[in-house]
Specification:
Elements (H helix, E strand, L loop, with lengths): L2 H7 L3 H13 L10 E6 L2 E7 L9 H4 L3 E10 L2 E10 L5 H7 L3 H4 L3 E6 L3 H8 L5 E6 L5 H11 L2 E4 L16
Parallel strand pairs: 5-6, 6-7
Antiparallel strand pairs: 1-2, 1-5, 3-4
């Protein structure tokens, strides 16, 4: 096999790290959404995390989801509209766990790969964490506009991974 043939079959770094984030997400026991995140400095993997209940506490698959409903006022086409949002409050998000289990000094100037676009709370936390870039696969439309605006204000590169296909072993149906 020629060297160029070998390189053509080799995954690029974005795909490589997003594949790892998806494989990390398979540890989640959340019945609604499996989310994985990876912290990378250059090409060095510094940490991984997934969403779930706090350690030692029953998770949603054992105790059921703790769903709360919230209403948020949004401007749609210049008109004020109320949008219902549901979220589980038992689960610590993958991005939050990543921040809990990595050091600030490691995060300075690093990149976070996450299977799903961060929610508003996670985006706020990431914005204050020292990272310089967030790469995600699945959109999270409920918070998308305000999260993109925050990242722009903070100067954090915020980008979806275009044309990405997750590993088959990490597949799950996502409940919005």
């Amino acid at each position: 096999m020629a060297a160029s043939d070998h390189d053509a079959s080799r995954k690029d770094w974005d795909t490589y790290f997003m594949d790892i984030a998806y494989m990390v997400s398979t540890r989640s026991r959340c019945p609604r959404r499996h989310v994985g995140s990876v912290l990378v400095q250059g090409k060095k993997l510094l940490g991984t995390a997934y969403n779930g209940a706090p350690m030692g506490v029953q998770d949603c698959s054992e105790a059921g989801c703790m769903i709360v409903e919230e209403w948020e006022q949004k401007l749609v086409d210049g008109k004020s509209d109320l949008v219902k949002k549901q979220r589980c409050i038992r689960t610590i998000h993958a991005e939050q766990n990543l921040l809990l289990f990595t050091d600030r000094t490691d995060r300075e100037g690093s990149t976070v790969y996450v299977t799903d676009q961060p929610c508003w709370t996670c985006a706020n936390m990431l914005a204050n964490s020292g990272i310089r870039e967030i790469v995600f696969d699945r959109p999270y439309p409920k918070d998308s506009d305000k999260v993109m605006k925050l990242m722009e204000q903070k100067g954090i590169v915020f980008r979806p991974l275009q044309g990405y296909e997750p590993p088959a072993q990490a597949g799950m149906n996502v409940i919005s």
